[in-house]
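Fold it.
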Amino acid sequence: MNVQIFIPCFIDQLYPTVAFNMIKVLEKAGCSVKYNPNQTCCGQPAFNAGFWGEAKDVCDKFMKDFAGTDYIVAPSASCIGFVKNYYQKIYENSARKDSVNRISNRVYELSDFLVNVLKVEDLGATFNAKVTYHDSCAALRECKIKEEPRTLLRNVKGLELIEMNDVETCCGFGGTFAVKFEPISVAMADQKIINATATEAEYIVSTDMSCLMHIDGCIEHKKSNLKILHLVDVLAMGAE
């Protein structure tokens, strides 16, 4: 199966290993991976900041860059949730509405794609560690992803998955929310760290590096021993 990959801005700039590991995992699952180097952003930051006109320009480019019929897979439920749920709003009075519906049906977060499209649950990964999982708001509420990441983690050899309390509660990032309402944002992340630490897990794992980036900053400030890992980084371990 041919798959186009979308690499979100912050992963491209700050966490490129996540992108390389996604390629490794998709190829392990039998996909032929294509990357368009012209790709940029999905448009979410501008849209969330209220710049809908500028966001539409970015969305236009996204649809041009990902033209075709291949599935589009990203290691970010946040970006995928935006394309699936908000492109319709941006183009609601546009002649491109049908094109938007088609692209919305082609975009998938990685765990959703592996489990529900490829029907792959075991990628041969090995990771000897205790792990707790964080449901990102975008994965849970916009993409309706709950069991898929857990299914994949439970099939990782040596991994012990332990659920934390209030697992569906926001970590406090929320993009610009973390900047505009910093005290509230930090308090929410601190509570997430408390809940994760109580499980005695060594790592907190999620589908969204944006959440993990925020949590990791608070972990460093609290001098906690907890570490972060993107789901795909776990799935790539020992999956040569």
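Residues 182-198 form the longest helix (17 residues).
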